[in-house]
Amino acid sequence: MSNTTPITELLAQLGGGDSAAMQALIPAVYQELKALAQSRIAAERGGHTLSATALVHEAYLRMVGSELPPLNDRHHFMAVAAIAMRRVLVDHARSVNRDKRGGGLQREPLSEVGAELDADPGELLELDAALTRLAERDALMAQVVEMRWFAGMSVEDCAAALDQSPRTIARRWVQARAWLLKELRSDPGE
Q1: Whole-angstrom Cα distance, residue 12 to residue 66?
Q2: Which of 84, 139, 143, 175 could cross-link with 59 by S-S, CB 3.0 to 4.6 Å?
Q3: pLDDT in tens, 71-125
Q4: Cβ contact 97:103 at 8 Å
């Protein structure tokens, strides 16, 4: 039996209204979530005040405290976890930016989408705003970015979670990165 089967069963129980299933699900995927969180924290600026453990726990609390969509499998669960982690990181960046800069944001475009965010939380806020605009234009491309960037999911995992072909996901990933790079490099007044 693969290690995905118990997770899929727990997700089915969760979808069936079994609230205890979430309590059993988290230990089953905790190490994977923590590795994901560690990679996201490592990609942030140096001296980040949010630990990987705190990121996992905060994302979990947000997932438990919200109405979750039906989750089909581990890939789908990780995609939802990626969205929760994105929201935690963005809220944390807003808090840090508000505290350090009196709430005023300075635009500092990423040199490359997917590069380390080593300057300040303003870059993550810019990425979040750009992703929101991208979602209005093309929801699939925005989902691909969330899964690849925030969850570190492979093209194949994204394809499975989104019920798309890997070729479609790879193409959307390239398009999304190009769109975001252009968007993040443009002047705020444009």
Answers
A1: 17
A2: 84
A3: 778 888 888 888 888 888 888 877 776 655 444 444 444 444 444 444 456 777 8
A4: yes
Q: Look up residue 125 and give its two tokens.
A: 């806020």
Cut 0.85: pTM above it? no
Q: Which two tokens stand for residue 118?
A: 């080593």
Q: Please report, for the chain, the start and end positions of each structural domain, with discontinuous segments joined by +.
A: 4-185
- The pLDDT of residue 68 is above 80: no
Among the listed residues 151, 163, 158, the one whose alpha carbon sits nearest the alpha carbon of residue 173: 158
Confidence of residue 174 (pLDDT cuts 50, 70, 90): very high
Q: Which residue has the tokens 């899964």?
A: 147
DSSP state of 70: P
What is the CB neighbour count within 10 angstroms for residue 24? Answer: 15
What is the residue whose two structure tokens read 């789908």? Answer: 76
Tell me which residue has tokens 């995992």. Answer: 157
Record the tokens describing residue 175, joined without a space. Answer: 């398009």
Q: In sequence order, which residues have a C-beta less than 8 Å from that of residue 156 and are 6 or more positions away?
A: 166
Helix 74-101 and helix 155-162: axis angle, to 10°? 110
